[in-house]
């Protein structure tokens, strides 16, 4: 009995140490000598910054997210799912635009519960910005809170011009159309 307890305690301690190393924990005062849990002297390269975590969305949060007054800068809210091929085309375009246009905000909303694969997809396309996913409420309730006129087709994009205007579009978008709906000028400069 005592041997089993010792094995269990040892396994728990080992799991804690492994988690600390893998998650980049370092004891207080050791930050200068550790990089992601690996001693800097070992020549370890710095780990890339962690991707933003997904926020689970409920109906009240969805209504706040789509309120035009909440967006004081040009903002793209991209609704997508892991299985939607056309969504990924939009995500790639939006990521490139957000990187080229410093004042442009990009927010993504996965129309499914958050899963690790979702973050990997966004990371693969270099998608910056806040990340939301459907929470525990009924998907139909969340969809209605996002856009009462939306029937679930994907990709769906809500574009906020930063001056109180908003437009919802279904389907794959081109850069010129996105710029027009956001009130941006031609590539490389804002026409606000």
UniProtKB/TrEMBL annotation:
Keywords: Signal. Residues 1-31 form the signal peptide. Residues 45-183 form the Thioredoxin domain. InterPro entries: Thioredoxin-like_sf, Thioredoxin_domain. This is Thioredoxin domain-containing protein.
């Amino acid at each position: 009995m005592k041997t089993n307890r010792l094995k269990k305690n040892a396994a728990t301690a080992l799991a804690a140490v492994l988690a600390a190393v893998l998650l980049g924990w370092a004891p207080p005062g050791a930050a200068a000598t550790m990089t992601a849990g690996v001693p800097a002297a070992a020549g370890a390269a710095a780990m890339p910054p962690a991707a933003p975590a997904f926020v689970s969305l409920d109906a009240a949060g969805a209504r706040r997210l789509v309120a035009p007054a909440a967006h004081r800068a040009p903002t793209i809210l991209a609704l997508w799912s892991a299985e939607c091929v056309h969504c990924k085309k939009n995500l790639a375009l939006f990521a490139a635009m957000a990187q080229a246009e410093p004042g442009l905000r990009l927010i993504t909303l996965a129309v499914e519960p958050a899963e690790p694969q979702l973050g990997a997809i966004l990371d693969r396309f270099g998608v910056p910005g806040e990340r939301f996913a459907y929470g525990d409420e009924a998907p139909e309730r969340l969809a209605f809170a996002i856009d009462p006129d939306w029937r679930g087709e994907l990709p769906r994009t809500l574009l906020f011009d930063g001056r109180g205007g908003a437009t919802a579009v279904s389907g794959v978008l081109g850069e010129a159309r996105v710029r027009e709906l956001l009130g941006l000028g031609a590539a490389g400069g804002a026409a606000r």
